[in-house]
Task: structure prediction
Amino acid sequence: MSFYFTLNTGSSSVKFSLYKAHDKPEFYISGSIECLGPSAKLKMQTPIEQVRRELGPIDHASAVPAIFSALEPFLKGSSVVGIGHRIVHGGRSFFEPTELTPKVMDELEQLIPLAPLHQPYSLATIQAAKQVFPDALQIGCFDTAFHAGHSFPNDAFAIPRHFYEEGVRRYGFHGLSFDAICNEMRDRYSQVANERLVIAHLGNGASMCAVNNGHSISASTGFSAVDGLPMGTRCGRLDPGVMLYLMQEKKLSPEEIETIIYRRSGLLGLSGISSDMRDLEESNDPFAIEAIDYYCYQARREVATMAASLEGIDALIFSAGVGENSALVRSKICQPLAFLGITIDQKKNTVNAPEIGTGPVRVFIVATDEEQVIVRAVAQAHSKSQVS
Ligand code: ADP
Result:
């Protein structure tokens, strides 16, 4: 038997999934190595059991061999024929799943300055996967690719033009998640899938996307994945004047500012309690309440922005950890949007029903599955390579 494998590399974790390599890949095992560093942990769901293991010191490069040895008993001598990698930044060159040849790897290295907090980790994982699985087809799938067709007003910043030409653009992120949700909409709700959709991916990272006829029109993330909505620990939209103040008046270094806007802001920064929405919902602390209010207000505002870029809205879709599970957040976002035709049934909302809207705009809760998009790309590339 042959297998396909997906690797989704974050700054402190590597998620993986193993599929039986059929034309329609069949899910088999998934897991992750979290807390990469001195005391990494393996979590894995196999067909027979849940595995939890302390791994000790593991970095991104050594994560792949560690995953391989955890999977070895299940591979039983079978081969991994294709590996799909989630890559955050495809710059202006990569709009399609792409085989990760040495030339492509060189080009992806050039993009490190555009995504210094993500790209190097992805590249380290890919190099390790090439060593562990030298015969497998290695395919890169890009988070920016889904947003590649944006028009100039949704692609540029109003700074001197030469920066745009140099690549300072609103690339947009979470594209694999939006792509997965669009696929799911086509499978389950074909009558609305090609209309004007606003998709809210609300997880640890959070962003929104306006989709028309299956194509991304606008995204709330921009040059980096820190722009747009407030997130667990990222600040979202921030007046550039605040950055200048932090540098010039507070004398903070770029590294200190990076730590603030990526790791100490968002829900964590506002509440001073936690980046996890569940903790804030359980708390009576006024700062926790204000953090949730800010989060929902900015999300509500973004829905209206997305609706404006689509010249209307036919469906609003909630996804990811907060979007799929928090009735409170969905309610606080939707309740003031009745003027747009967005109203929800509170009973259905409370039980996370698949469809919760009651007004002219349909409102859905859809689980995202980035791995599904990646493995489909691997299966396609693999079957093409078999023909040629
Ligand atoms: P990631 O972006 O890391 O993939 P997830 O999509 O898993 O994140 O979302 C994680 C977040 O989802 C958690 O930080 C938590 O705040 C939120 N979450 C999960 N379950 C619930 C719930 N029942 N109620 C509110 N928030 C939840």
About this structure: Residues 203-205, 232, 276-278, 281, 320-322, 325-326 surround adenosine-5'-diphosphate (CB under 6 Å).
